[in-house]
Amino acid sequence: MQVEFIGIAHTSDYSETNALAGPVVQPEYLYRLAYVHENSGFDRVLVAHSSASPDGFTVADQVLTATETLGVLLAHRPGFVAPTIAARKFATLDAFHPGRIALHVITGGDDGDQARDGDFSDKPTRYRRTDEFLDIVELEWSSAERFDYEGEFYRVKDAWSSLRPADGHLPVYFGGASDDAIRVGGRHADVYAFWGEPLDGIRQRIAQVQASAAAAGRTLDRFSVSLRPIAADTETAAWERAHEILERTRERAAEYVGRRDTSQAEGSRRLLRYAADGEVHDKRLWTALAKATGAAGNSTALVGSYEQVAESLLDYVAVGASTLLIRGYDPLSDAAAYANLIRLVHDKVGDDISGYRASVAA
After folding, report:
1. 69: containing domain
2. Separation of alpha carbons 125 and 266, rounded Å
3. pLDDT, position 362
4. Is the terminal CB of the chain with fewer CB neighbours within 10 Å at N or C?
5. Which residue ranges in the chain fall short of pLDDT 70?
6. Is residue 80 a contact partner of residue 119, using CB atoms and an 8 Å limit?
7. How many domains does the structure of the chain reveal?
8. pLDDT confidence of residue 13
9. What pLDDT is stored for residue 297 in this prediction?
10. Burial class of residue 346 in the structure, from the number of CB atoms within 10 Å of its CB (0-12 exposed, 13-18 middle, 19+ buried)
11. Average pLDDT over the chain, rounded to whole?
12. What are phi and psi of 322, to 5 degrees?
């Protein structure tokens, strides 16, 4: 198994440093961004979700249709689409684009963003609902027989789908840092996703999730780490760009900092604690951007030359990551430049992650 690389799919050119110009959906930009990711060697792109985002299923289908091999990790927030319907929507995408769609479960850490779509439940309730949602999704994908389900949130009777994935399952990625997230993710995740913490933090979180999976009678050995590499031909040039990005981020911070209540998200709180402890962790994990944005999402960067950043990515592989979700502050040009990082990591790891880890340990 090689390291899996995931990028980002945007329907227009924006980021923390780039203000939106033009409509939110610009099809040609999306197609070009997908094409660049495919040609850079990415395995998938993430179609993210918020209460203000374009419809993810439509965006995912557009990306899959515009490319030949690129996969999509489609973020989905349980609670707004019935689980039987959501399962068939994902299975339909898989039928048109076999093996190229995966589900990324984001339960939702911000009460305000949930309320914008009419959900006023608290976080513990949302995670109990997610647990049931995934129970039913998995049954809808796998069951050749009709089934009933009765839970706290969902009740279905005589459910059955004429459309099921070939293996009776699609990959389930799962994010969340709270105890409730770890409990539910341990039961259901194929890949558990973390934001870019220092290496010791990732080791700690992997151990927590694996203990949760073991308590549910499962083994979970695939983990994703999300990072924002700022790489250049030299370390000096990379740091110059990093400080330019930080300056532009601070200039625009008033436009988005505070729109999300990160105080409710354990993942954000963890990033902010690391930022308070120091600006640089390990070799080159830079936390200044997390501090500037209130850790409103994936916001820690690896800064250095391409070789240095690739070395730091390999450190995450060595401690247990099998997926690296990397996205830049200039989404299109960074996706093209990341081909260098992907090549350097693949050249080092080869086709055997376990063998690479063993060689590092030795």
Report:
1. 4-361
2. 16
3. 85
4. C
5. 255-264
6. yes
7. 1
8. 93
9. 82
10. middle
11. 95
12. -115, -15
Q: Which two tokens mark 233? A: 């031909």
Q: Which positions ≥6 away from 301 have C-beta within 8 Å?
A: 196, 227, 228, 229, 230, 242, 285, 286, 289
- Name the CA dihedral angle for 259, 295, 74, 329, rounded to a multiple of 10 degrees: 100
Do residues 137 and 86 lie in contact, with contact meaning Cβ atoms separated by under 8 Å?
A: yes
CATH of the domain at 21: 3.20.20.30
* Claim: this prediction has a pTM higher than 0.85: yes
What is the C-alpha to C-alpha distance for residues 212 and 185, in angstroms, rounded to an integer? 8
CA proximity to 108, closest of 43, 176, 188, 187: 176
* Tens of pLDDT, residues 202-214: 999 999 999 999 9
Q: What amino acid occupies position 347?
A: D
* DSSP state for residue 326 in the 8-state scheme: E
Q: 258 is written with which tokens?
A: 């505070």
* Closest C-alpha to 345, from 41, 35, 34: 41
Q: Select from 124, 120, 88 the least CA-distant residue to 107.
A: 124
Place of tokens 């039928």: 95
